[in-house]
Write a structure and sequence with these properties.
The protein is α/β, with parallel strands linked by helices. It is globular, with a radius of gyration of 27 Å. It is about 50% helix and about 10% strand. It folds into two domains: about 220 residues, no CATH class; about 400 residues, Alkaline Phosphatase, subunit A (3-Layer(aba) Sandwich), CATH 3.40.720.10.
């Protein structure tokens, strides 16, 4: 007996009155399940039961009810409508939970477009966890198919269904306009913890409400006071654009996956082991080096946003309030690679991962890279370490392509590489990982495993930085080597390590502690040949060791160190702004050596110029 025949025999016909009752009950149950799954939400709401919690429960439930009703009128099947709606919201809440645990960052609408990227990460989870996710998906697929095949609602007349769809869409639109996109209403509800930390917003106000609000708030809008003609005139200001190629250094820029200096901790001791930052520290102490920290757009993920900031100079969070900046690059966009090409550089991007990850295969040509070497050029199972291509092979590619270029070309090259070996998750990441450190605080086996695996990746990355620098030191070609981390790691135990090991990193702490959640090390080092060519300008342009600056300044600062003072009007403006406003992240700043949320009016005017110019370059140029 086939399924079609079985369906005819075993179909359950449900009265309309029962269907309506089922829709209402299912909306409440789904909402409760979503709240229970979302980390901390049920706990927070239970502890502070009041009028706000009741309102928030209703606001979080209404979208579930609206979607079920809409699907009910479309399909004439109440069970199917409840099943597919429940599947979508429950899977979404699971994704939100896992992302918060792994990255301390909630699930937002633009994450939906990154399904391939997310699957690429999830499939490297421990096998049991990966199998668990697959079983959940299969369960919901089976639930939806079963409801569609074996359950029916008593037939409703087509005109009634059509009118029902129109009314439901209209009500949904009006609710979204007046409630779910209402910034005043959203901000009126209390938040448990720091209001600027999105995780606190989600856990305090509910996943459904926050997710829909994010959808509305993430829409790109012109900045207040934006004047295209004014910015266009600034952008067309003439700058010196002729350079002697024989005096221009090669630039090799490497972004280390989840590279950080978390190993620098009073409770962690590497005396009996290799310091995972051995080469980074050695190079930082060179007279031809400057190092410090950059403030990046994301914590625990969002690699491409840091790329965007460094390669374009446009601060992600002033261009895209949430989500991934690369999602909005759909045309040629002015950038440092383009400007370097204009003065004679060749440009090459290297990433030993999938070319489609973060849409790099399309974005890189749009921001000026002539060639892109990706995973297809790193074949062989022996090249994988910890689930990804080992940093050794990324370093080999950097050196090999550099040598190939200088043998066949007389012009300088700009190489940009994104490593991948140290990508999470870090639970049992490496086989037979050895003990990396001693600690004067008790760590259980899982905690030791996480840190040993993480520091193994840092050590491997550091070893290759040392190898590349040693190679460059022994050649006559002038080269500037730039290295930095894309974001802090997202551990599966959330913020546990930061509290346990007394790091001054706290999303709910003072302004400096909040910013350190987004702080990664950077190093700019020149070989002797480059130092002679550029006269190592660090001191002459006001740079100091252990400086802190936003990631969007790093690229333009490197060109200034290379002796390219006026690469474009925008980069000239940024290099000047950096001298008195080195850190800008959302509405938190480093100004006059103090962290603050307030700036004098003349500096706010300069900040507005940066925001407007960045918008112009990405969306209006």
């Amino acid at each position: 007996m086939n399924i079609k025949k079985l369906a005819k025999i075993k179909t359950f016909q449900i009265p309309i009155s029962f269907s309506i009752a089922l829709i209402i009950l299912s909306s409440l149950i789904i909402s409760l399940i979503v709240i229970t799954i979302s980390p901390e939400t049920s706990k927070i709401w239970t502890e502070i039961i009041n009028d706000s919690v009741i309102k928030l429960f209703i606001i979080n439930t209404i979208p579930i009810f609206i979607l079920i009703i809409l699907l009910f009128f479309i399909s004439n099947n109440a069970v199917f409508s409840c099943a597919i709606t429940g599947s979508l919201f429950v899977v979404g809440s699971i994704a939100n939970r896992e992302k918060i645990i792994l990255r301390q960052d909630p699930f937002i609408p633009s994450d939906i477009s990154l399904f391939n990227e997310a699957f690429g990460i999830v499939k490297n989870f421990p096998k049991r966890q990966f199998l668990f996710y697959i079983l959940i998906i299969l369960f919901f697929v089976l639930l939806v198919l079963t409801s569609l095949i074996f359950f029916k609602t008593k037939k409703i007349k087509t005109p009634v269904r059509f009118l029902g769809v129109i009314l439901t869409v209209l009500i949904g639109y009006l609710l979204n306009f007046f409630v779910y996109s209402n910034e005043f209403l959203y901000n009126k509800f209390p938040v448990n913890g720091n209001i600027y930390f999105d995780v606190n917003q989600y856990t305090s106000k509910g996943f459904v409400y926050s997710f829909i609000y994010k959808y509305n708030s993430m829409k790109i809008q012109k900045p207040d006071g934006y004047d295209k003609n004014y910015i266009s005139n600034l952008d067309n200001t003439k700058t010196v654009a002729e350079y002697d190629q024989n005096k221009l250094p090669h630039i090799i820029m490497i972004m280390g996956e989840a590279f950080s200096d978390l190993s620098e901790n009073s409770h962690i001791d590497f005396s009996n082991y290799q310091d995972p930052l051995k080469n980074f520290k050695r190079l930082s102490n060179s007279p031809n080096a400057i190092s410090g920290h950059i403030i990046v757009p994301n914590f625990g993920g969002g690699t491409s946003n840091t790329e965007f900031d460094v390669l374009t100079g446009y601060p992600t969070r002033y261009v895209v309030k949430d989500g991934m900046s690369y999602s909005y690059i759909r045309k040629n966009t002015d950038s440092i690679p383009w400007r370097l090409k204009d003065i004679g550089y060749s440009t090459l991007a290297i990433h030993p991962g999938f070319s489609w990850f973060y849409n790099r295969s399309n974005v890189y040509p749009h921001i000026g890279f002539e060639n892109f070497i990706h995973l297809s050029s790193f074949q062989g199972s022996e090249k994988y370490t910890g689930g990804y291509i080992a940093d050794k092979y990324a370093a080999d590619s950097i050196i090999e392509n550099f040598e190939k270029h200088i043998k066949t070309n007389s012009n300088p090259i700009f190489e940009f590489c994104v490593t991948i070996e140290n990508h999470g998750p870090y639970d049992n990441k490496y086989e037979n990982v050895t003990k990396m450190f001693d600690c004067d605080i008790y760590l259980d086996q899982n905690q030791q495993n996480l840190l040993n695996n993480y520091f193994t990746g840092i050590k491997d990355n550091d070893n290759e930085i040392g190898r590349i620098a040693d190679y460059l030191e022994n050649i006559d070609e002038p080269v500037i080597l730039v290295f930095f981390g894309d974001h802090l790691p997202g551990f599966s135990n959330g913020m546990e390590f930061f509290d346990l090991l007394d790091y001054d990193i706290d999303p709910n702490g003072n302004l400096e502690e909040q910013l350190k959640l987004y702080s990664t090390p950077f190093l700019i080092w020149e070989n002797d040949a480059a130092a002679k060519t550029t006269n190592f300008k660090a001191k002459t342009i006001g740079l100091e060791q252990n400086m802190v600056l936003s990631a969007n300044y790093l690229g333009s600062m490197v060109t200034q160190l290379a002796g390219i003072e006026n690469l474009s009007p925008f980069y000239k403006f940024e290099n000047e702004l950096r001298t008195y406003l080195p850190v800008i992240r959302d509405e938190t700043f480093l100004f006059n050596n103090s962290y603050t949320t307030e700036l004098p009016n003349n500096i706010l005017s300069e900040l507005d110029t940066l925001k407007h110019w960045s918008y112009y370059k990405v969306f209006d140029d």
